[in-house]
Amino acid sequence: MTLTGPGGVGKSRLMVEAARRLEAGFADGVRFVELAAVSAADLVAPGIAAGLGLSTSAGRLAADLESFLRSRRVLLALDSFEQVIGAAPLLAGLLAAAPGLVVLVTSRAVLRLSGEHEFPVPPLPVPPAGAAADPAGLLGFASVGLFAERAHAAAPGVRADRRQRGGGGGETRRRWRRSAAGWTGCRWPSSWPRPGSGCCRRRPCWSGWASGSAC
After folding, report:
1. Which of 81, 115, 124, 162 could serve as 143's disulfide partner, Cβ 3.0–4.6 Å?
2. Could you give the CA distance from residue 4 to residue 39 in angstroms, rounded to a whole number?
3. Which of 185, 197, 195 has its CA nearest to residue 152?
4. Which residues have a Cβ under 8 Å from the Cβ of 213 and sit 6 or more positions away?
5. pLDDT on residue 143
6. How far apart are CA 31 and CA 139, in angstroms?
7. Cα–Cα distance measured from residue 154 to residue 122, given in angstroms and rounded to the nearest whole number
8. Which burial class, exposed, middle or buried, applies to 198 when counting CB atoms under 10 A from its CB (0-12, 13-18, 19+)?
9. Distance from C-alpha of 51 to C-alpha of 171, rounded to nearest angstrom
């Protein structure tokens, strides 16, 4: 399954939530590989091996990955695949070799693999340009509510009320709409191994596995 859409639309957040809900159906768990900092297709296989906790040699990467996955029931979540699209044949080989493997990908473009299912991710709804300036009304939009939640988490003094918005009028609303539309914050389930901090909102990371409940 490939979740497609432009940057900042919420693909990563949707992938995390989908994987969390599907986790119980995979006896060998969910494994996440962040590819935002991977610049070459030939580095994807080492990244997947690291995500699986698999030690292997450079000359046997693909074969060892296939052997490791062949008898396992795993959900492999790969984030930001568009810049390493040349590694798509690697995924095709792994899927052919491992019947219990399911791959969930976020990408700005489809991978064009046999059996691939594309799910275009729409942006969260934002207030129309002429929307009333009432904070309660604005918070009824999912994008604004998510933005306000994340802003408050980062700075507890931030509130979505008239005092905080100030007198900027239309310009203030435009800033809220731009910020809210591009926000892709996500919470990481505590039971998963995950990459180091930075998996939220356009902050690429690929620094191995660490424990934690939120990013």
Report:
1. 124
2. 19
3. 185
4. 187, 188, 189, 190
5. 74
6. 34
7. 26
8. middle
9. 44
pLDDT tens for 132-143 read 666 667 777 777
Q: How far apart are CA 97 and CA 60, in angstroms?
A: 15
The CB density around residue 85, as the number of other CB atoms within 10 Å, is 15
- Residues 190 and 210: their CA atoms lie apart, in Å, by 10
Q: 25 is written with which tokens?
A: 């159906």
Tell me the two tokens of residue 104: 């969930």
Q: What is the C-alpha to C-alpha distance for residues 139 and 125, in angstroms, rounded to an integer?
A: 11
Residues 6+ apart with CB under 8 A from 77: 15, 16, 19, 30, 31, 32, 33, 103, 104, 105
For the chain, domains (ranges, CATH) are 2-120 (3.40.50.300), 135-182 (no CATH)
